C-alpha cells in the first residue's frame, strides 16, 4: 500500500496554482507524473500524491520542475479566480472514475503525439525529397545552359573560320585575274611562273593553308573502344558529393556492427549443431522452466536471443523467468521488447500479446506501481474479455489503487 504524501504546500494567484511536493530523498528518475485538467498524480514508490483539482487547469501549459529534493508544479487555471481549496471533496467512486479517465486521456494524448510525430516526420521527408529534386533540376538546367553556351560559341567560331576561308579564296582568285591581264600573248602564258603560296597568301596564312591540305588528305581514324574507370561508390545517388561524410559514418558503423556480430559468432563456434538453432534452445528453456530451473532457462533464452533477436516468445518467456527470480525490472524490459516485436496487433499474436501484458503488469504490481500494472491488465482484458481469472485479478488491482483493499 503506497504512503500518501500530506506534507505538500500550495499557493495560488488569480491565474496560476503552484504546488511543491517533497521527494523524500528519492531519485528524480524514479518519479512518475500523471496530469490532466482535473487530476494530478505523482508516484515515487513507496510514496504517492494525488490531487483532484477544485477547478480545471490548462494541463497542456502546465510545467513541472523535479530536482533539489522537490517536485514543483506550475498549473495555469482555465478560469481566473481564487480557489477555496486545492482539492474538491468527492467520494471514492468519483475518485475511481477520475483516475480511469486520467489514464485514458494520457493514453489518447500519447497516441496523438505519436501520430503527430509520424506525420511531421513524413512531411519533413517529403520536403527533403522535394528540395533535393529541386536542386537536381537546377543543376541539370545549369549544365544544359553551359552546353548551350558552349555550342553557340563553337558555332560562332566555325562560322568565323568559314568566312575567313571564303575571303582567302576570293583574294586568291583576284590575284590570278590580275596576273592574267598582264600577259601580252598566249605563247608566253605557259612561261609565266606559277605563283607560290607565299605570293598568293599573306604571311602567316601559308602554314594554315598547308595544315588544311594535310587535314583533307588524312585518312579517317579507325574505330575503337575507350575504357573509362569510375571511382566505386556504395551510394550511387545524385548529389552524392555533398553527402560523403554521412556515407562514411554510416559505413563505419556497419563495419563495427559486422565486427561485433563476428565476435558473437566466434564465441558460438564451440556449440553443437542443434545448440545453434534458436527453436531448439527455446524448447530447452521451456523445459528448464517447467522443472523450476529458472536460471538455466534464462541461459538458454539468452543464447537463443544472440542467434535471433526477432522472436517475441524468447523475450516473453525470459520475462516469465525473471518474474520467478524477482528480477522485476528485467521482466518489464523483456515484456516491453516482446510487445514491440508483436506489432502490428493481429489475431494470430493475440495470445502472445496478452501474456506479455500480464507479465509486465505483474512486475509493475510487484514494484507497487499499481496504476501502471492496471493499465497492462486492462490491455490484456481488451484482448481476451471473457477471461474471468484475468478480470478478477484486474478488479483486485483496481481496489488497491482505489484504496479499498490493502496490497498483498
From TrEMBL:
Protein location: Cell projection, Neuron projection; Dynein axonemal particle; Nucleus
Biological-process GO terms, alphabetical: determination of left/right symmetry; epithelial cilium movement involved in extracellular fluid movement; heart development; inner dynein arm assembly; nervous system development; outer dynein arm assembly
Database matches in Gene3D superfamilies: 2.60.40.790, Tetratricopeptide repeat domain
Keyword Repeat: yes
Compositional bias segments (type: Basic and acidic residues): 102-115
Region: Disordered, residue numbers: 102-123
Repeat (TPR) residue spans along the chain: 278-311, 354-387
UniProt GO molecular function: nuclear estrogen receptor binding
Keyword terms of this UniProt record: Cell projection, Cytoplasm, Neurogenesis, Nucleus, Repeat, TPR repeat
GO cellular component, one term: extracellular region
CS domain boundaries: 3-87
InterPro entries recorded: CS_dom, CS_DYX1C1, Dynein_assembly_factor_4, HSP20-like_chaperone, TPR-like_helical_dom_sf, TPR_rpt
Main location, first listed in the record: other
PANTHER family documented for this protein: DYNEIN ASSEMBLY FACTOR 4, AXONEMAL, DYNEIN AXONEMAL ASSEMBLY FACTOR 4
Protein name, as recorded: Dynein axonemal assembly factor 4
Taxonomic lineage: Eukaryota, Metazoa, Chordata, Craniata, Vertebrata
Protein encoded by which gene: DNAAF4
Amino acid at each position: 500500500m503506497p504512503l500518501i504524501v500530506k506534507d505538500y504546500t500550495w499557493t495560488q494567484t488569480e491565474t496560476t496554482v503552484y504546488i511543491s511536493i517533497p521527494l523524500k530523498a528519492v531519485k528524480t528518475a524514479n518519479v512518475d507524473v500523471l496530469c490532466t485538467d482535473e487530476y494530478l498524480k505523482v508516484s515515487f514508490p513507496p510514496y504517492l500524491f494525488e490531487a483532484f483539482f477544485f477547478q480545471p487547469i490548462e494541463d497542456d501549459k502546465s510545467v513541472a520542475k523535479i530536482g533539489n529534493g522537490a517536485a514543483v508544479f506550475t498549473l495555469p487555471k482555465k478560469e481566473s479566480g481564487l480557489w477555496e481549496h486545492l482539492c474538491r471533496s468527492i467520494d471514492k467512486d468519483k475518485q475511481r472514475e477520475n483516475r480511469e479517465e486520467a489514464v485514458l486521456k494520457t493514453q489518447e494524448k500519447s497516441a496523438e503525439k505519436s501520430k503527430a510525430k509520424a506525420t511531421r516526420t513524413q512531411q519533413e521527408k517529403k520536403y527533403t525529397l522535394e528540395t533535393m529534386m529541386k536542386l537536381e533540376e537546377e543543376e541539370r538546367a545549369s549544365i544544359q545552359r553551359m552546353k548551350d553556351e558552349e555550342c553557340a560559341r563553337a558555332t560562332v567560331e566555325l562560322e568565323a573560320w568559314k568566312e575567313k576561308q571564303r575571303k582567302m579564296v576570293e583574294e586568291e582568285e583576284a590575284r590570278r585575274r590580275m596576273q592574267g591581264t598582264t600577259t601580252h600573248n598566249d605563247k608566253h602564258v605557259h612561261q609565266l611562273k606559277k605563283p607560290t603560296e607565299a605570293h598568293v597568301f599573306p604571311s602567316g596564312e601559308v602554314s594554315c593553308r598547308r595544315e588544311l591540305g594535310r587535314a583533307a588528305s588524312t585518312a579517317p581514324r579507325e574505330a575503337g573502344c575507350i575504357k573509362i574507370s569510375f571511382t566505386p561508390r556504395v551510394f550511387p545517388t545524385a548529389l552524392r558529393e555533398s553527402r560523403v561524410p554521412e556515407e562514411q559514418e554510416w559505413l563505419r558503423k556497419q563495419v563495427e556492427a559486422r565486427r561485433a556480430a563476428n565476435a558473437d559468432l566466434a564465441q558460438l563456434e564451440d556449440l553443437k549443431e542443434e545448440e545453434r538453432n534458436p527453436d531448439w534452445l527455446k524448447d530447452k528453456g521451456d523445459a528448464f522452466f517447467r522443472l523450476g530451473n529458472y536460471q538455466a532457462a534464462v541461459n538458454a533464452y539468452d543464447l537463443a536471443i544472440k542467434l535471433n533477436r526477432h522472436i517475441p516468445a524468447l523475450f516473453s518467456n525470459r520475462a516469465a523467468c525473471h518474474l520467478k527470480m524477482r528480477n522485476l525490472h528485467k521482466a518489464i524490459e523483456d515484456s516491453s521488447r516482446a510487445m514491440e516485436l508483436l506489432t502490428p496487433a493481429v489475431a494470430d499474436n493475440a495470445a502472445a500479446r496478452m501474456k506479455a501484458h500480464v507479465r509486465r503488469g505483474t512486475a509493475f504490481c510487484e514494484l507497487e506501481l499499481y496504476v501502471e500494472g492496471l493499465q497492462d491488465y486492462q490491455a490484456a482484458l481488451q484482448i481476451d474479455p471473457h477471461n474471468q481469472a484475468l478480470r478478477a485479478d484486474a478488479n483486485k488491482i483496481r481496489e488497491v489503487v482505489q484504496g479499498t483493499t490493502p496490497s498483498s
